[in-house]
Amino acid sequence: MVRMAAKKSDPLMLLAFVLVSLFAGLLGSLFTFPSIPTWYATLQKPPFNPPNWVFGPVWTTLYLLMGIAAYLVYREGFDKKEVKAAIYAFACQLCLNAAWSIAFFGLHSIAGGMATIVLLWLAIALNLVLFYRISRAAGLLLVPYLAWVSFASVLNFSVLLLNP
Predict the structure, then answer these.
(1) Signed CA dihedral, 32, 109, 107, 19: sign only
(2) Are 83 and 73 in contact, with CB atoms under 8 Å apart?
(3) pTM score, two decimals?
(4) Does the residue 4 lie in any domain?
(5) 5 within a domain of the structure (yes/no)
(6) Domain count across the chain
(7) In degrees, to the nearest 5, what angle opens at C-alpha 145 toward C-alphas 64 and 77?
(8) At 27, which CATH number?
């Protein structure tokens, strides 16, 4: 039986990936928080809209999972073509994640948010597949993120329909 060498742990890179993920959330929150008590409060929302306090803990957890997942892929060797592609896909979906907050909350564009969240969903799905091919655990860590953005997409679409 051939034994695989254990991957070297790099706590600083783990921290870096988690902080980069959390930074995307922080960037988005700069556009989100000012609009919640003002513009967002005036919108008609569907009955399944969660209370505002739910979003912070959910997103913080998702950003932590994203950072851990990216680290698990990175430690497989950034010199590998498939690892680089997966990390670039990760960066792309993080940018789209922040872009959604800018479009929806910053620009007060429900339709712009809808267009962005569709692109975000596609980018997350691609990212999940790329991560899974490299590290099953990393791919699985993105499943809650894809599930939440699926829910957020339905929510965005419902808000769009309720606020023509």
Answers:
(1) positive
(2) yes
(3) 0.92
(4) no
(5) no
(6) 1
(7) 60
(8) 1.20.1260.100
Which string of DSSP letters, residue by residue, matches 88-157? HHHHHHHHHHHHHHIIIIIS--HHHHHHHHHHHHHHHHHHHHHHHHH-HHHHHHTHHHHHHHHHHHHHHH
Mean pLDDT of the chain: 95
**Are the C-beta atoms of residues 86 and 131 closer than 8 Å to each other?**
yes
- The token pair at 151 is 């829910």
Q: For residue 122, what are the domain limits?
A: 13-41+50-162
Is 90 exceeded by the pLDDT of residue 3? no
Supply 156's token pair: 């965005």
Confidence band of 32 (pLDDT split at 50, 70, 90): very high
User: For tokens 């870096």, what's the residue?
Assistant: 16
Structural domain includes residue 102:
yes
Place of tokens 């928080």: 33
The span from the CA of 56 to the CA of 140, in Å, is 22
Residues 6+ apart with CB under 8 A from 131: 69, 70, 72, 73, 86, 90, 138, 139, 141, 142
* 115: number of Cβ within 10 Å: 14
Q: How many residues are present in the chain?
A: 164
Let me know if residue 2 belongs to a domain. no
CB 93 within 8 Å of CB 24: no
Cα 59 to Cα 1, 2, 25, 101, distances in angstroms? 42, 41, 7, 12
Please identify which residue in the block is written with the tokens 């791919």.
139
Q: Enter the tokens of residue 61.
A: 């957890």
